[in-house]
Amino acid sequence: MKRAVKQALMSAYLASGWTPVRDRLYARLGRSRLTVLCYHQVTDPANDYSTVGTAAFREQMQFIKDHYSVVSLTDGVAALRTLGIAGRLVAVTFDDGYRDNAAVAAPILQSLGLPACFFVCTDLIGSTRPFPHDLAQCRPPQEHLTWADLRSLVSAGFEIGSHTCSHADLGVLPLPEAEAELRRSREHLEQELGVHVRSFAFPYGHRRNMRPDTVAAARREYEICCSAYGGHNTAPIDASNVRRVVISTGVTFLAFRAILEGWPILRRNNPYRAHPETSQQTREPEKTAT
Asked: Is residue 21 part of a domain?
């Protein structure tokens, strides 16, 4: 019953005529609107709450291609730095660095001519070491991207961004360690890939994972810094906190359309949370070394 009511409300929201009025108002004010989508994995079966199935992902990508201006993250942020001609812009991003990003998602994006940015944790590239959130969920081993995969993504025209070295929670990490994670991940990516890395996404991406001092540190290393607690961006944008909407298994196609149009009730925050034990280890590494 609750699901049926929510679907009815979303359908009414999309049919209300409010969103075209809002877009015309933004156009008169010269305010472009950028929605940044955040994915983690695209694979079948989509049996994890942050994984999206292959058919659903293709349907979503076809929809944004048909109804929005799909731009790279860099171009989208650049378009919103100042007031100007309004546009309905969408950018696609991926977090962590799972191998299905290159094996499944990238070919779909290429077939549709869509750009994307892949935020990766450099210490886990080509590794069998699990992500902290996979450990917390007791997930089976997941394949990670390799450096060869990342070079192929760069050759295909995709953007690569940093997600720290180890998927560190920058809300609890001491500032010197946070600065090292931010700097070393960028330098490693640039050395291996031969590209200028301009963007960064905070692991977990909640407000509590983004202390003012670590946000400032990230801005010293990167031109664009992304959160993942939901919401849209309008000009003039705050490049130190580009808001993103996490798309997960439970997002139906109707909900996906409503999210793009600013549906205000649906939960849009990042489902991943730092595991308490991981946070404690991050705060006190010397006590866990033995």
From this structure: yes
87-98 per-residue burial string, b: 16 or more CB within 10 A, e: under 16: bbbbbbbbbbbb
Helix H or strand E segment including 225: strand 224-226
Question: What's the domain range around 42?
Answer: 2-282
Estimate the crossing angle of helix 2-15 against helix 18-29, to 10 degrees. Answer: 50
What are the pLDDT digits (tens) for 137-195?
888 999 999 999 999 999 999 999 999 999 999 999 999 999 999 999 999 999 999 99
Contact present, 146 and 118 (Cβ < 8 Å): no
Q: What are phi and psi of 245, to 5 degrees?
A: -110, 120
- Global pTM? 0.90
**37/165 Cα distance (integer angstroms):** 22
